[in-house]
Structure formats: C-alpha cells, structure tokens
Amino acid sequence: VAEAVETMDGWYCLHDLRQIDWTSWKLAPVEEREAALAEFQALLAKWDEVEQSRNGSHAVYSILGHKADFIMMILRPTMKELEEVELAFSKSKLAEFTTPAYSYVSVVELSKYMTKEGEDPEQNPEVQARLKPRLPKWEHICFYPMDKRRSGNDNWYSLPMEDRKKLMYEHGMTGRKYAGRIRQIITGSMGFDDWEWSVTLFAHDSLDIKKLVYEMRFDEVSARYGEFGAFYVGNLLDRDAIPAYLHV
Ligand code: 76R
C-alpha cells in the first residue's frame, strides 16, 4: 500500500464565481444601482480591514468568456468565517443581479514531499506565511480545479512515496522557472468539493499563465497523472475600478 503524504493546511478558501444579469441591472432605477454599488463597496472595505489585520485575504477579478463575469476568491481561518462572507454577499443588493456561475470550497495546502529528514516545516515562518497568504493583486488570475488520475497503470494513489517525490520535485523545478512572474496557490479539496485540488495562478503578464501551464503539461506528473476541470481567466478588478465596471 502506498503511503499518504502529510499535508499542512492553512486558511479555508472559497472561489465564488458570479454571472451578472446585465438586463435586469440596466432596467434597475439608478438609485437602486447606486445603493447596490455602495453596499458592495462597503463590504469590500470590510474585507480589506480583515486582510490588513491578517485574519484573511481576498481578491476580486473580472472573468473573460461566458463561464462567469467575476470571481471573488476569499480566504478565512475557519469554514464558519468563510460562510459568513458568502452569506453577506448573497444577502446584498448586488447579489440580486447575479447568479452563481461556479464555486469551489478548499483549504490552502502544502505537502511534505520536499521535507528533509529531521525538519519540521510547520515551524518555518515562510511556510506559515504561505499557508495564510495575502493574495497578490496582480493583473491576472487563472483558476482551475484538478485531480490526479486513478486508472489502470496510471494511478497516482498507488505509486510509492519515492516515485511521487521524484515527480513532484521535477514539477517544482518547472514551477521555479516562473519565480517572480507567477504566484501559485494550491488548495486541497478532498472531501470538500468535486475535484481534489484547485490551482490559482496570479500573473502580471497573461502569457506567463499560458506558458507555465503548457510547459507543465510535459512534466510527467501532469502528462501522465493530471486531469483538469474548467479554466477561468481574468483581469484584476480593483475596488476603485468597480463603479466603471458596473456602469451601464
Ligand atoms: O511547495 C512548493 O513550492 C514545493 C514544490 C511544489 C509542490 C509540492 C510545487 C511548486 N507545487 C507543489 C504541489 Mn505545484 N502547481 C500545480 C499546477 O497545470 C498543471 O499541470 C498543474 C497545476 C501548477 C500550474 C502549479 C504551479 N502543485 C502541487 C500539487 C499538490 C500535489 C500533491 O500533493 O500530490 C498540485 C495539484 C500542484 C499543481 N507548483 C510549484 C507550481 C509552481 C509555479 C511551483 C513553483 C513554486 C516556486 O518555487 O516558486
């Protein structure tokens, strides 16, 4: 029997993707739109305070294509606090003009594949910072869920630990080439959602997203064992940019 790798788990994560009902938004009286906008801005101001006091983080991006109009990626220390954020938005005026497009529940995860003998990574402040990250506010986001394959000779979960370590090492080396250009947040979602992990990439240059994902397809761990869900890609939606984004 293959041995499970130990994980370190940080903040809980909700990827909340919404579609805007532009028709009813346009039909709404201007006072109603203004009230919805002001309430949303106040909600974002609250989330900013939480982020500043390091009790969570969030990022809001507009999404291209038909799959969603915008994403709110939220991190909180507990599932309870995460739910409160989701509820606060759902009860808001703006939410009346949106429909859920997709959502994903997970927890920030680091595995111990790369841990050296005698090391306790949980005591490492850098590790702690990565488990409770301030989400970057870079120009672009890319989010997708994924699994590791479990079929026939390509079963990740029956590979010996040593083989998985080697494959994850190669994966990490490819990733490192993008240091400073891509920030990745891996969250684990076994038992929480329909896929096993979510991948969120932040980039200044959207092409770096494509290049990294492409290059990784050739790493054995992705080529042989990676299965991917839908991809969502978008642009930063700053608090200041939201009135223009919603202006009709
Ligand atoms: O934690 C670390 O940085 C050490 C190395 C590392 C691990 C353990 C690492 C590095 N990742 C790890 C784990 Mn990753 N990662 C993905 C994807 O599209 C694809 O082909 C796969 C989606 C990307 C783009 C990516 C990027 N990684 C994982 C896991 C958990 C696996 C498990 O436990 O079995 C998954 C699912 C996953 C998927 N990874 C990096 C990156 C990048 C850019 C790095 C380098 C980080 C850096 O050194 O700056």
From TrEMBL:
<dbReference type="InterPro" id="IPR031332">
    <property type="entry name" value="CHDC"/>
</dbReference>
<dbReference type="GO" id="GO:0046872">
    <property type="term" value="F:metal ion binding"/>
</dbReference>
<keyword id="KW-0408">Iron</keyword>
<feature type="binding site">
    <location>
        <begin position="144"/>
        <end position="148"/>
    </location>
    <ligand>
        <name>Fe-coproporphyrin III</name>
    </ligand>
</feature>
<comment type="function">
    <text>Involved in coproporphyrin-dependent heme b biosynthesis. Catalyzes the decarboxylation of Fe-coproporphyrin III (coproheme) to heme b (protoheme IX), the last step of the pathway. The reaction occurs in a stepwise manner with a three-propionate intermediate.</text>
</comment>
<feature type="binding site">
    <location>
        <position position="130"/>
    </location>
    <ligand>
        <name>Fe-coproporphyrin III</name>
    </ligand>
</feature>
<keyword id="KW-0479">Metal-binding</keyword>
<keyword id="KW-0350">Heme biosynthesis</keyword>
<keyword id="KW-0575">Peroxidase</keyword>
<dbReference type="InterPro" id="IPR011008">
    <property type="entry name" value="Dimeric_a/b-barrel"/>
</dbReference>
<dbReference type="GO" id="GO:0016634">
    <property type="term" value="F:oxidoreductase activity, acting on the CH-CH group of donors, oxygen as acceptor"/>
</dbReference>
<protein>
    <recommendedName>
        <fullName>Coproheme decarboxylase</fullName>
        <ecNumber>1.3.98.5</ecNumber>
    </recommendedName>
</protein>
<dbReference type="Pfam" id="PF06778">
    <property type="entry name" value="Chlor_dismutase"/>
</dbReference>
<feature type="binding site" description="axial binding residue">
    <location>
        <position position="171"/>
    </location>
    <ligand>
        <name>Fe-coproporphyrin III</name>
    </ligand>
</feature>
<dbReference type="GO" id="GO:0006785">
    <property type="term" value="P:heme B biosynthetic process"/>
</dbReference>
<dbReference type="GO" id="GO:0004601">
    <property type="term" value="F:peroxidase activity"/>
</dbReference>
<feature type="active site">
    <location>
        <position position="144"/>
    </location>
</feature>
<keyword id="KW-0560">Oxidoreductase</keyword>
<dbReference type="GO" id="GO:0020037">
    <property type="term" value="F:heme binding"/>
</dbReference>
<comment type="pathway">
    <text>Porphyrin-containing compound metabolism; protoheme biosynthesis.</text>
</comment>
<feature type="binding site">
    <location>
        <position position="184"/>
    </location>
    <ligand>
        <name>Fe-coproporphyrin III</name>
    </ligand>
</feature>
<feature type="binding site">
    <location>
        <position position="222"/>
    </location>
    <ligand>
        <name>Fe-coproporphyrin III</name>
    </ligand>
</feature>
<keyword id="KW-0349">Heme</keyword>
<dbReference type="InterPro" id="IPR010644">
    <property type="entry name" value="ChdC/CLD"/>
</dbReference>
<comment type="similarity">
    <text>Belongs to the ChdC family. Type 1 subfamily.</text>
</comment>
